[in-house]
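=== How it folds ===
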Amino acid sequence: MEGTSRTLPYTIRFAGLLGSHSLGRNPKFMATAVDLGRELMRRRISLASGGGNQHGGGYGPTYGVEHTVSSNYYKYFEMNHAVEAFIILPGGVDTMEGLFTLISWASEGLHNRPIGLLNIDGYFNNLLKFLDDAVRQNFMASSQRKLFISSFFVDELLDKLEFAKAFPSPGAGYDEFANPERLDPELHL
């Protein structure tokens, strides 16, 4: 898979991965997860994952140090201290718990790592619609909604995460960075 990444001053070297312990019914989930692994290797990004009990907590061989923790909370806590960004894959209740824990911690200022949803085959569409509606109905601050990003594509999600790491404060968005010809010179000079 040929990536489309642009060179950024700060690149991610260690990412946390949250996702289901099962493969799901849709073969695109596994295929995209394999693509993600290949792209992480191409970019030399190491991975920390929560893992489940099925498939040894992942797919393929495991390298490096393994730590066992007593609860999901401690898993996110420990992972938060080690990684520079989080990648969320399709999953169930435990994955959603992790996602919302990370969003909550970010909104409370407990971490500033970018959070990215890999929206494989539109899996997160209903969740994103729900959260956008929560903002419209004033149940959620728009600042909380901006704490995470999503993409249907592996390389674009990783580019967005690297952009968010390099430029954590408000300013030009990823779309302007990725498509500089779309910038309005009157607004950006």
User: Anything to note?
Assistant: The longest helix spans residues 27-42.
